[in-house]
Structure formats: structure tokens, C-alpha cells
Amino acid sequence: MADLEEQLKQSMGKRIRLIVTDGVFSMDGDIAPLPQIVDLAKKYDAFTFIDECHATGVFGVNGRGTPEYFGLEGKIDIINSTLGKALGGGTGGYTCASQEVVDVLSQKGRPYLFSNSIAPSVVGASLEVFKMLNESQDLIRNLHANTKLFRSQMKKAGFNILGHDDCPIDPVYLGDARLAAVIAEARIETFNIYVIGFSFPVVPKG
Questions:
Q1: I need a surface site. Which of 8, 55, 63, 178 has the fewest CB within 10 A?
Q2: What is the distance between the alpha carbons of residues 155 and 140, in angstroms, rounded to a whole number?
């Protein structure tokens, strides 16, 4: 946050400044400190943009992402997310913003202008998922319970689990590429649990 504030100070002469962040970081399970980011944006007259691909359908009481999780709904200028991942659609995504931003994207956004639209079946399924999230908190509560159970028991077993304790992205830090590959393979063969071992260059060495 100190570095972000310094960047905002140095760019005071610019007409438009945009703070861009993930809501949830996919590789390490960290959550962006949105309250501090929003405070700095307001202090230095900057806009905020968050990528919610790993938070939509997962964070917040109703699965509406990190703004809901932090009580900041309506405080983020641009939200970008996917209909895949937690929503299960597999393809497509969306941007939520002011009408002015949406109009610019409609006129200037190459992926919007030069791509086929997503399949009607995906649209229908995605709308149904949003409806399900609005009607019941059972899926979110179950996910949170499983997250806490997995994280607590893995730590109890001696594993180093990275990221925020509320995050269902639970990186198991081993520090050795070969060991990660062996353990991932064993999970699949022994327990039929699909696990992927990440190593350099996907993650830093070590």
C-alpha cells in the first residue's frame, strides 16, 4: 500500500489514474486489501478496477465477490469477471461498470467486437447460477466449511498452506518441484483426487 500511494503521488499530473488488482490471487490464495485500496483511490482521485475471476461465486455471503466480502459493494468502478471457474460456464465473461465505461468497451473493445458471442446455453446456465446464489447461501456456506476443514487439518498434519484462511484456493507449499509432482501423482493414483503440482516457471524457483 505504501508503494501504491507513492505511485499515486507521482502520477498526480495525469488526467486518469486506474488502480488495477485481482480480488483474489489465483496462485497464492491471497485477498487484495480492498478497503485500503478504495481509501487511496478516493484520497488521490483515482478509479478502481478489480478482476474477480477467482472470487465470483466464492467470496461474500452471497458469492458476489470481494466487494461483498469487504462490504464495499458499489464502491468499485470497474469489475471484470468470468462465467467459468466457480460459475461453471466454461466460456465467456462480463464487465460491470458505469454506462460510460460500458459504452466505450462496446465501441472499442476488440474481443467484444471481433469475437463470437457466447452460446445461449452458457448464458442460460450462468443466469441460473446467479439465481441459485441469490436464493440460497448453502453452497457458499458448504464451501467455507470445507475450506476451513481442509486448511486446519492440512496445517495440523504439518503442511505449509499459503494464502488467506478464508480463501478456498489453498496452495500447499512444498518448495521442491520433484516432490510436488510425486505427491500430485500419488493423490490421483491412490485417492482418485485430481491434483496438479506447479513448478518453475509457473511459480518462482524454490
A1: 178
A2: 22
Catalytic residues: 26, 54, 85
Cβ atoms of 55 and 72 within 8 Å: the answer is: no
- Residue whose cell numbers read 478502481: 48
Hey, is 42 helix, strand or coil?
helix
The stretches of 79-190 forming alpha helices (DSSP H) are 99-108, 110-113, 120-135, 138-156, 177-186
Q: What is the pLDDT of residue 115?
A: 81
Please tell me the total number of residues recorded for the chain in this structure: 206
Q: Is 206's pLDDT higher than 80?
A: no
pTM as predicted: 0.87
Asked whether 83 and 93 are in contact (CB, 8 A), the reply is yes
Domains detected in the chain: 2-135 (3.40.640.10)
| Residue 136 neighbours by CB under 8 Å, 6+ apart | none
Task: Check residue 205 and give its pLDDT.
Answer: 81
Mean pLDDT in residue range 178-190: 92
